[in-house]
Specification:
alpha/beta; about 15% strand; 6-stranded parallel β-sheet
Length: about 200
């Protein structure tokens, strides 16, 4: 059983996500919080996954994420998927990022993926992370580069894009060759606009 805490300042959204997750037999919502301060003050020893809204009043979801200590893994949720905020959340330790336009099935699958140890991003988040077209890269290679820039492993990129891990490895090799870089880190820096 995956034990989830839902954190959102809007009661309807918080309760709706909880009902959706509770409809899945392998997920139980053990707590709901309306602010990051409530979450930080709570005993999270009985929580496996925290579903955390990015845009909370008071300490933001990102600030809360940076203050949380294990064991719970954090799946960020947001209405808006700005690439720099998604990258910040993943770099700060979020185990996944899902936009609120996801279906209930996508949300439950993301919770299960994060619980299994994967980094999960919804298809809409993957699209938001796509790097603007670079000469010589195919659209799929641009998606892979964007996810590299967010710090995802080949396994996590495969899950995000619905590809085999071996296929992702081939795409990563093509991206490195086409960009003329030697490492994933160099490619990620290019994706983030730092090089």
């Amino acid at each position: 059983m995956v034990r989830v805490a839902v954190v959102d300042d809007q009661a309807l959204v918080r309760e709706g996500m909880s009902l959706i997750l509770e409809a899945h037999p392998a997920i139980t919502v053990t707590a709901q919080y309306s602010s990051g301060a409530e979450l930080l003050a709570a005993d999270l020893t009985t929580v496996d996954i925290v579903l955390l809204d990015l845009y909370l009043p008071g300490p933001s979801g990102l600030e809360v994420l940076q203050q949380l200590t294990p064991p719970p893994r954090v799946l960020m949720v947001s209405t808006i998927g700005r690439p720099h905020e998604i990258r910040q959340a993943l770099a700060a330790g979020a185990a996944g990022f899902v936009l609120k336009d996801a279906t209930g099935e996508e949300l439950a699958a993301a919770v299960h993926g994060v619980h299994s140890g994967l980094t999960v991003v919804s298809p809409a988040v993957s699209s938001a992370l796509q790097v603007p077209a670079r000469p010589g890269l195919t659209p799929r290679e641009g998606e892979v580069l964007g996810l590299l820039g967010a710090g995802l492993s080949n396994r996590d990129i495969a899950l995000a894009l619905g590809l085999a891990e071996r296929t992702v490895k081939v795409h990563v090799g093509h991206v490195l060759a086409k960009l003329g870089v030697r490492s994933r880190t160099q490619a990620a820096l290019l994706a983030q606009g730092r090089s």
